[in-house]
Amino acid sequence: MAKEGIRHLGYPAYFGIALTVFKVLGAIILIVPKAPKRIKEWAYAGFGFDFIFASISHWAVDGFGMEAMFPWIVFAVLAVSYVYYHKLSDSNAIG
Predict the structure, then answer these.
(1) Distances (CA, A) of 20 to 1, 29, 93, 95
(2) What distance lies between CA 80 and its chain's CA centroid?
(3) Which residue has the higher pLDDT, 58 or 43?
(4) Does the structure show a pLDDT above 70 at 93?
(5) Cβ atoms 13, 23 nearer than 8 A
(6) What is the Cα 69 distance to its own chain's centre?
(7) CA contacts within 13 A on the Cβ side of 52
(8) In the chain, domain spans
(9) Inter-CA distances, 74 with 12, 20, 36, 38, Å
(10) pLDDT tens column, 13-41
(11) Cα–Cα distance for residue pair 77/47, rounded to 1 Å
(12) What is the SS3 assignment for the chain?
């Protein structure tokens, strides 16, 4: 189903493989508590770009609809995670 979605948006098959690899690596980086802060920042940025560009791709191909809006919902969850990550890391640096 994911392969069909990538094809439907006009991307080559290898693009889906690259996205999968980077998403798995990014998820691992975000989950591991001792991952370096700079690497976590890049992981958050990568996921943010991914969700924004997914929305743009769906909007360009399918028009404005739930497929174009859903990445923004996930982006909002990512933004909340990012804010709390900084609150926790700042409080750990102080105490």
Answers:
(1) 13, 14, 33, 37
(2) 13
(3) 43
(4) no
(5) no
(6) 14
(7) 7
(8) 2-94
(9) 24, 16, 24, 22
(10) 888 888 889 999 999 999 998 899 999 99
(11) 11
(12) CHHHHHHHCCCCHHHHHHHHHHHHHHHHHHHCCCCCHHHHHHHHHHHHHHHHHHHHHHHHHHCCCHHHHHHHHHHHHHHHHHHHHHHHHHHHHHC
The band of 75, judged by pLDDT with boundaries at 50, 70 and 90, is very high
Residue that has been written with the tokens 């690259």 in this structure: 18
How long is the chain? 95
Amino acid at 43: A
**CA-to-CA dists, residue 86 to 41, 43, 49, 72, 89, angstroms:** 10, 14, 19, 21, 5
In Å, the largest CA–CA distance within the chain is: 50
Q: Which of 29, 31, 1 is nearest to 16 (CA)?
A: 1
